[in-house]
Amino acid sequence: MDLVIIGGGPAGMSAGIYASLLGLDFIILEAEEPGGLTNQAKSIENFLGFRGKSGKAIIETFLSDLALQGVKIKYPEPVNDIDLVSEAKTVKTVSDKYQAKTVILATGTRFLGLSKTMGIEGEKEFLGKGLSYCPECDGPLFKGKDVMVIGSAYDAFFMKGLAGKTYYLGPIPEKEEKQISRELLKANEIDYLEGKIERLEGKDFLEKVIVDGKAIPLEGLFITSREVGSELFQKVGIETDGDGYIKVDRKMKTNIPGVFAAGDITGEPWQIAKSLGEGATAALSVYHFLTGKAMHDLGWSLMK
Ligand SMILES: Cc1cc2nc3c(=O)[nH]c(=O)nc-3n(C[C@H](O)[C@H](O)[C@H](O)COP(=O)(O)OP(=O)(O)OC[C@H]3O[C@@H](n4cnc5c(N)ncnc54)[C@H](O)[C@@H]3O)c2cc1C
Questions:
Q1: 11 alpha carbon to ligand 1 midpoint, in Å?
Q2: Can you give the pTM of this predicted structure?
Q3: Distance in Å, CA 83 to ligand 1 centroid
Q4: How does pLDDT run across 194-253, given as a tens digit for each residue?
Q5: How far, in Å, from the CA of 10 to the mean position of ligand 1?
Q6: Of 21, 93, 88, which is closest to residue 295 (Cα–Cα)?
Q7: 210, CA 20 to 30 Å: which among 18, 185, 194, 281?
Q8: Residues with a CB atom less than 6 Å from ligand 1
């Protein structure tokens, strides 16, 4: 096989359509369901051509385009072991083992909101109904409304620029402490709180959060902590930055020959447009790696 793409979100899908048009022998492995984080977006305002559509609707369009091109995503097929250093890369799942000359890592990031460490009672119920993980994406929907941010304190500043009363539930992450203090938050009219969110309450939409027994009325809650990378990557020596994002060059090459990365996993901005572009670039780079041909050598061969 020429290529294994790990992750069936926008980055993996985009890599897949290019890989198919380039005539590569490849597979896309997805741990859960195709679409990744985009499935959670209620309404997308900043992705050209799809303004106002839900993430799910966008993913359906992507999937039907992939189907027209004959591209399938194998799921649920979580990758749980990889050997990327040998010339023949090995990718293992519970049920199978794949060998390929190249690999594209497109596994995105994971929000801690739904994880065991930060899970909050009622969280799933309010996702998209007042609860969001992405201030840059959903922030504009909360103009003038009262909100709370948990995670990066920078996100509290971002939301303060849009929202009404803005709470930040600390503690401030260690890596932000040098730049952001409680005093700075206060000076910017951001209310600093500490405590445990016990539950979320509301009828159809979020109306209040209960922190240490005290009800705080608000319409938006942003849980922005993310987990990136995985033990898998660390084990095989993929170079990451201080925050765990995979280091790539403009061709989406990692430090390991034949291994490329694309999408949220390479860092900000965490956006669909960027993920699609990087997925496309990664597939073209795989093609170059395998054949020595660059995009300008292809002529019209992408147009079938
Ligand atoms: C609520 C919300 C609203 C958003 N709104 C917008 C918006 O308005 N505009 C915008 O541009 N972006 C928005 N985004 C961000 C956008 O969804 C992401 O930037 C995009 O999905 C990233 O694509 P990706 O393919 O890099 O990663 P992901 O979408 O995270 O996909 C990665 C995939 O890899 C899979 N995977 C992970 N580990 C493994 C493994 N070991 N084996 C196999 N598969 C694995 C995951 O299951 C996942 O499906 C929003 C996100 C959220 C959560």
A1: 8
A2: 0.83
A3: 24
A4: 998 999 999 999 999 999 999 999 999 999 887 776 667 878 889 998 888 999 999 999
A5: 7
A6: 21
A7: 185
A8: 6-12, 29-32, 36-38, 40-41, 44-47, 78-79, 106-108, 132-134, 137-138, 263-265, 270-273, 275
